Every structure is written in C-alpha cells, then in structure tokens.
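TOPIC: backbone geometry
CONTENTS: sequence, structure tokens:
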Amino acid sequence: MKRCSIVLFAVVAICCLGASALAQCKVEETPYRGWNALKLSNELVELYVVPDIGGRIIQFVFEGHEYLFVNDSLAGKVLPYKEGEWNNYGGDKLWPAPQGWDGPHQWPGPGDPILDGGRFTYEILQPQGKHASVRLTSPPDKESTGIQFSRIITLKAGQPEVFFENTMTNVSDRTVSWGIWSVTQIDASNPEGEGHNDQLDFYCALNPRSTFPKKYAVLYGLVNNFAWLPDYKRNLFRGHYNYLVGKVGIDSPGGWLASLDGKTGYVLVQRYKYFPGKRYPDDSSVEFWVNGAGSFIAAKKLIESKPDPQKTPYLFEMEILSPLVTLSPRQSYTFKTEWKALKGDLPALMKEVGLRGER
C-alpha cells in the first residue's frame, strides 16, 4: 500500500511537471501580413506587434478568433508620413491626449510622423518561460508634444490576458501636460459574409455622479445616433455598432470596458485604474468611436464619411484615457492597462468577470 502511494505520488508529480512545462510563453520574430513582427504567445492567445508602424499591436488572437481590425489595403506596407493624411494600419496603439486643433496643448493627429507612424525600437525582456515580455519605444517627439512613449507588453502562462505598462516621458526642455490614450480598433465586419456585424456591442460603467447631463457626452456625429443605448437602471453604457459615424466620451469610474460579438460569442475586456478627482482629457476615462457613414466636424472642417467599406471600413474603437499629467523635463508617468479574452453571452460575461455599473 505504501509503495502504491509512492508510485501514485510520483505519477501525479510527473504529470504536474509535464503540465507545467507545457504552460509556457514565448516571444519570437516572425512575418505577419507582410510586416516584420513580434509574436507573443502562450497556449491560449497570440499577440502580433509591428514596431515599424508606430509600435502597433496589429492583431490579438484567442481560439483562432482575430479581434482587431487590420487594413487589408495597407497590409505589409510601411508608408512615409504626408501632411494631412493618416495611414490607418489598424490594430492598437498609444496616442497623446487631448486631441484637438486649437493650439500646442492639443494633439492634432492622427496622422503623426513620430508617435503614430514612426519606427519604434524593441527589446525582448523575457523571451520565454512562465511569462514573456517585450518593450517598445517610440522615437522622441521633442518639438511637437515633447514626449516619448514606451510600452512593456507581458503575457503569462495559462492566462488569456495581456498586461501593459504604458509610459510617457518628457524628452523636451519644457514642462508638458498630456494623458496617455490607448486606442484599440475592433474588427466590425460581418463574420458570416458581406456588410457589417449587426450584433456587435460595447459596454462600460456609467458614473452616477457624472459631469455630463446624460452621463455620457457625444463628441462627434449626431447627438441622437441610435448607437448610444445607456442603461440607466444598471448604470451601464451600451453602444451598438450600426455603421453610423459617431463618438462618445464617458467619465466611467468602473475600471473596465468590453466588446461583445453576438454572432460569435467572443468578448474582449479591457481594464484600467480610475482616479477620482483627477482631470481627464475630454473629461472622459473611456471613449468609443464608431467608424461608419455620415458627417462630423473635426479640425474645424465638415468631414463626410462615405458608405464605402474601402474608404470607411467596418471598425469601432475601444479607447482608454489616463488622467492629464504635468511632467517636468525628463519626468515619466506610467499607466497600466490589461486585456482579457473570453467567450460567452452577456449574462455569462457579467458573472465571470464581475462587470457592473457603478452605484
């Protein structure tokens, strides 16, 4: 009996060791859609990063499902910056906030030749093991914004999650004030054929003590856009992708936002820390942009978006903003965010990750 127990213990230990050995992360250089990319992967997810196009995370994959929009017309290209144009490759990137065209205290992009479109450098910090990580660093933007971005991206074994340390450093000789703006473009095309995905929703918590009368603010597009569907009883903001251009800002204190694909059941949850009492760009910690047909005003111009998926592709943006931070020369600020991939309907999502409105 004793010998059997020893043998059983040994078998269990070997099995556990084997399972542990399989639970590995790694970083490798690889081509992706014609670009030179870095692939971070574990047994659950894959993350593709292209340093040459603004340090973009160009794709995030869970169970074969690709969450992010990639512009097919620009795949594999690294284009020079042209004044007044934006090379929207897709994926996820960091921008400075607030955006605007009224003076040097606002970022007039995109496009942008350095922070959005510059060639980032990279360093593989941990190539493989229980976790894997890389650091991306932008060129210094000394003249315009005065800042330089760096970003540490980490995967951990056995988790469908990504961890980000997003840092901006004042590389100028003057004091600057910016927020860190994480912009993630979600593929909103119909997975079953032509047209857009008409079962794609996005969520965050509403603020019961919001500075906005409706607890959210329409920043671009029609005020009565039927994409905006707040649930005041649960203090939840819901948006629905309808291919009608518009943008909202929410002073969301919940620390999360999520997209839910009703056709496939795939969910992407993003997390951040909310800082009550701090000033935020646009007074918002979360923003959603619906790319679609219609008109809006930007840079003091009326912009017309045509109902043509080649010119106006099917996508929406999940956007997280840090508080505004004032930095003296050579000072830095780090803002951490996380992603989690899931699959399930909304009630299951709410139960599993504990998403809720603020009371």
In short: Confidence is low (pLDDT under 50) at residues 1-21. The CA atoms of residues 98 and 281 lie 5 Å apart. The domain at 19-353 is CATH 2.70.98.10 (Beta-galactosidase; Chain A, domain 5). The chain has two helices and 24 strands.
